[in-house]
Every structure is written in C-alpha cells, then in structure tokens.
Design goal:
single chain; about 150 residues; 4-stranded mixed beta sheet; about 40% helix; globular
Length: about 150
C-alpha cells in the first residue's frame, strides 16, 4: 500500500493533467513573468492541501476558483484552508475563473504587485495613507481577491 506522499504525487499529477481553461491560461502567463526566480509550481502539495499555483520562494499561492466557491460550505472550507496556508507563511490570492479568462491583464498586475512586495507577508498591514486620512481610495493592485482570500463569490 502506498504511503501518503505517493498518493499526494499521484493526485497532484492528476490535477495538473485535468486543469481548467482558466488554470491553463494563468499557467501560460505565470511562466512568462519577468521577475527573477518567480518560479511557480502547479498543484503544489502543502500540508493536506494542493495549491493551484505556489511560489515557495515568494511564499505566494494563487487560487483559481470556480462558481462553487461562492457556496457557504465551500467558502467555509476555503477560509479554513487559507488560514492553514497563512499559518505556514504563505499569502493567498484568489481569482474567479471568469476574472482569469476575461481580465488576465488585471490578474497578472495583481500577481506582479504581490511578488514585488517581497517574499514575506506582513501581519495586519496598515491601510493606505489615503484611507487613514479618510480618503479610502484603493491603490492599484489592491482588491478583494487579495488578503486572506476575502472577495466576492465567483
């Protein structure tokens, strides 16, 4: 009987083989990022979970979510999963399939900005200066798909 790592390898291979159209598109773009050593792995095994895309050097995980992630049961699972990954020092960016398929430039800009911010996440970052001054405008690259996986349902 195979041990757990062998099952994880087989499952990761299966997930890589059966990528969604959105995952395929994002993978194509991730492989062309102009950031040195921004190597991403597909279906990376981290604890009991598989991250759609993970850069271990930058401690960044990118998840591409289908419509089922808006359901309460799946959203609860996603929050638990994100908490686990963050407890291991990873930042998690979540994007809907539709975002990846129709707004890839915006998705890649958000990923690029996250990579440029560095390898280590900061706990509880301060709000942008405009927000502290009462302006509340979001900076470019900030959005609900970032920050602990908080976002609108797909």
């Amino acid at each position: 009987m195979p041990d757990a790592p062998d099952r994880n390898i087989a499952r990761a291979r299966e997930l890589r083989r059966d990528m969604t159209d959105a995952e395929k598109k994002l993978w194509w773009h991730l492989r062309r990022l102009p950031i040195e050593e921004s190597h991403f792995r597909r279906q990376a095994s981290i604890g009991p979970y598989f991250a759609d895309f993970a850069s271990h050097r930058y401690r960044l995980i990118i998840e591409v979510d289908g419509s089922g992630h808006g359901e309460i049961r799946q959203a609860t699972y996603d929050l638990e999963r994100t908490a686990f990954l963050e407890s291991r020092g990873y930042r998690v960016l979540r994007f809907c399939n539709n975002e990846v398929l129709t707004e890839i430039d915006g998705v890649m800009n958000a990923i690029y900005a996250a990579l440029c911010r560095g390898a280590l996440p900061t706990p509880g970052p301060s709000p942008p200066l405009a927000a502290r001054a009462g302006g509340g405008e979001q900076q470019a690259g900030e959005g609900e798909q970032q920050g602990g996986g908080q976002r609108e349902p797909c």
